[in-house]
């Protein structure tokens, strides 16, 4: 859950990038890290194995500017995508404000995508969240690969709720910031609703 | 679902005062307060050379991982953790089930003294955070974001 500090006039929100192994979650964060001003970002922390697979999480703090005198800060996390790291994935979802699902567009990864999104639903539910209610956006990554499935097909299988979706090529940045902006907007809109409730 | 954490001026000053006093009483280098979701709440002592944001996130990750381990062996939590380094050591204590008190210290003090002082500080912090929870649950304690417009949100992304 977001943290509102009236004393330092800051608001901090947590966004988690979820998806199957090797879908490009860490690459999304690395691209954001490389393309943002040093003043607006903190260190990119990656807890990974020797072969650069995410072991626990990546973390990137990002400042987006002020809204009504409050500094807005987003903490971006990735989960380890490999199936057997499920215990770690659950921990990282604690206190989440918004989720980005990074899907791997390659046809041979369709099953892994489906398995991962089902796993996301279950793990969120364990924390008391409903994927149908929390801020959620979808990125269809690896659109540049020849074996990529059509966006329509991905939508049919992964996005029946029709949340905002973006084609992505994370290493070159295609769709990376569009995805981040979309989820950040949804999180801020949710905060507004929270205030009315 | 975890409740949203809201910090007000008065409690923030009281928490900082507890951290300052703990730093002095325990002869510690740095004292941090982090919430379990990885947000830094307060810091005192020699914080200049420490990346406090990263520290907060890694503390939360560590506490979450150890909590997961505790459950695997039938414990609810490990409320205290001590990590000993060559020069600096680190002590983490769960306070009120919601926040983590982190103390970094070197050989100018002792683990015994640090533990003793942490106990007192953690009792005080428990009370302050209980009060904070009550206050944010009180009617009329809405989000400062209740009034923002779509334009405000769009402006953030205009550059």
Largest sheet of chain B, order of strands side by side?
Answer: 3-2-6-5-4
Q: Strand fraction band of chain B?
A: 15-25%
Calculate Rg of chain A over CA atoms: 16 Å
Question: Order of SSEs of chain A, N→C?
Answer: EEHEEEHEHEHEH
Number of helices of chain A: 5
What does this structure look like?
The complex is a heterodimer of chains A (197) and B (159). Chain A starts with a strand and ends with a helix. Chain A is α/β, with parallel strands linked by helices and 197 residues long. The relative contact order of chain A is 0.18. Chain A has five helices and eight strands; from the N terminus they run E-E-H-E-E-E-H-E-H-E-H-E-H. Chain B is of the alpha+beta class and 159 residues long. Chain B is built from four helices and six strands; from the N terminus they run E-H-E-E-H-E-E-E-H-H. Chain B has helices at 9-25, 52-72, 111-137, 150-156, and strands spanning 5-7, 30-35, 40-45, 80-83, 89-95, 99-105. Chain B has a five-stranded antiparallel beta sheet with strand order 3-2-6-5-4, with helices on both faces. In chain B, helix 1 packs antiparallel against helix 3 (111-137). Chain B is globular. Classes of the chains: A alpha/beta (197), B alpha+beta (159). Chains A and B meet through strand 1, strand 2, strand 4, strand 5 and helix 2 of A and strand 1, helix 1, helix 2 and helix 4 of B.
Could you give a short description of this structure?
The complex is a heterodimer of chains A (197) and B (159). Chain A has 197 residues and is of the alpha/beta class.
Task: Please outline the helices and strands.
The complex is a heterodimer of chains A (197) and B (159).
Chain A: E1 3-5, E2 10-18, H1 25-35, E3 45-48, E4 54-67, E5 70-78, H2 86-92, E6 98-104, H3 110-126, E7 136-141, H4 151-158, E8 165-167, H5 176-196
Parallel strand pairs in A: 2-5, 2-6, 6-7, 7-8
Antiparallel strand pairs in A: 1-2, 3-4, 4-5
Chain B: E1 5-7, H1 9-25, E2 30-35, E3 40-45, H2 52-72, E4 80-83, E5 89-95, E6 99-105, H3 111-137, H4 150-156
Antiparallel strand pairs in B: 2-3, 2-6, 4-5, 5-6
């Amino acid at each position: 859950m977001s943290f509102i500090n009236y004393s330092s006039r800051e608001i901090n929100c947590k966004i988690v990038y979820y998806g199957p192994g090797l879908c490009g979650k860490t690459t999304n964060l690395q691209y954001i890290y490389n393309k943002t001003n040093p003043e607006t970002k903190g260190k990119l922390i990656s807890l990974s194995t020797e072969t650069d697979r995410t072991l626990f999480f990546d973390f990137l703090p990002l400042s987006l500017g002020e809204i009504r005198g409050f500094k807005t800060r987003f903490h971006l996390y990735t989960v380890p995508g490999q199936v057997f790291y499920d215990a770690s994935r659950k921990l990282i979802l604690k206190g989440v404000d918004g989720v980005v699902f990074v899907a791997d567009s390659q046809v041979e990864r369709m099953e892994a995508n489906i398995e991962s999104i089902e796993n996301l639903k279950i793990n969120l539910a364990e924390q008391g969240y409903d994927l149908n209610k929390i801020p959620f956006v979808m990125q269809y990554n690896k659109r540049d690969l020849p074996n990529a499935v059509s966006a329509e097909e991905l939508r049919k299988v992964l996005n029946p709720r029709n949340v905002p979706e973006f084609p992505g090529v994370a290493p070159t940045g295609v769709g990376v910031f569009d995805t981040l902006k979309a989820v950040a907007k949804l999180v801020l809109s949710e905060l507004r609703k929270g205030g009315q409730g | 679902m975890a409740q949203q954490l809201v910090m007000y001026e008065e409690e923030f000053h009281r928490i900082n005062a507890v951290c300052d006093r703990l730093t002095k009483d325990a002869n510690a280098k740095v004292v941090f307060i982090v919430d379990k979701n990885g947000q830094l709440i307060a810091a005192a002592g020699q914080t200049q050379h420490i990346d406090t944001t990263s520290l907060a996130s890694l503390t939360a990750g560590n506490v979450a991982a150890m909590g997961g381990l505790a459950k695997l062996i039938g414990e609810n939590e490990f409320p205290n953790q001590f990590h000993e380094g060559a020069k600096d050591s680190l002590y983490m204590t769960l306070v009120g089930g919601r926040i983590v008190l982190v103390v970094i210290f070197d050989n100018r003090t002792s683990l015994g003294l640090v533990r003793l002082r942490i106990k007192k500080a953690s009792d005080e912090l428990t009370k302050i955070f209980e009060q904070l929870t009550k206050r944010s649950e009180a009617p009329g304690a809405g989000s400062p974001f209740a009034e923002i417009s779509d334009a405000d949100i769009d402006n953030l992304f205009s550059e």
